[in-house]
Amino acid sequence: MRIGLSTYAFFWRGSDRVEDPMSLEAMLEETAALGGDVFQICDYPAIEAFGAARLNQLRAQAERLGIQLELGTKGVAPDHLGRYLDIAERLGVSLLRSMLYRDEDRPTTEVAIQRLEAILPRLRRHNVTLALETYEQVAVDELMTVVESLDDLHIGICLDPANCVAALEMPLTVVERTAPRVVNLHVKDFHFTRAPGWVGFQLAGCPLGEGQLPFDAMMRHVDPVSRGISQVIEHWLPWQSDATTTCRLESEWTRRNLEFLRSYTP
Question: Which of 12, 28, 132, 206 has its CB surrounded by the most CB atoms within 10 Å?
């Protein structure tokens, strides 16, 4: 069973909203201290500026701690993915998570397929799996068209059903549609509720097991343990009254969610 944390589990503690933001190295140490097996450096653009020495040190630290590193970015432009594959190679990473869109670069399904066909030989050569995430900007059927058209073991789905609620796609439907192609699992629970005053709605995170994520069904359909799929914890924790309260709650959610995943039995 491979369970761990994403940089999104340190969203506030690693941000400029706090006086002393956590470094990647500190996040790695905490992941190990909490018994995690995986640490996904996800949507962390600063890593693009890391020199070879720091990347080598990060890899050595992960190996010393017994942590498997994963990497995450956005976009499928070959030059951008190529840059992240360079980083992945330096870090010893075999799973790279991405999304079809990046900023104003929003390729059509056909263009996305062409771009991924161009990068496939390198993925195969270095035995890296590209995990394309489910999220609200791309319909799940469209994302699956890309993955199924390529039909290669090196390109699959990073499943995060919570993301798709904003596009009015039902989480269980997303799970069922993508399950055979899932290669990476982002685990976060959520509440979709009316906003205060009953005008509009709110989509926000909560501890695992307390919200509307169809967790049991997701685990049955995906079967991450038998398939060797890493389960990476993220949070959608709203900012609280102050930095101290927010960081304390973020830390509590992380510990609780790790315990929840470890104790799960189908």
Answer: 132
The pLDDT value recorded for residue 145 is 98
Mean pLDDT of 81-102: 98
Compute the radius of gyration of the chain from its Cα atoms. Answer: 18
* Bridge pairing between strands 201-206 and 189-194: antiparallel
Secondary structure (3-state) at 67: coil
Using CA atoms, how far apart are residues 157 and 180, in angstroms rounded to an integer?
Answer: 9
- The reported pLDDT for the residue numbered 90 is 97
Q: Sign of the CA dihedral 172, 176, 177, 179?
A: positive
How many whole angstroms separate alpha carbon 82 and alpha carbon 119? 8
**Which two three-digit tokens encode residue 194?**
């009316």
Quote the pTM value: 0.96
* Residue 51: DSSP 8-state: -
CB 25 within 8 A of CB 253: no
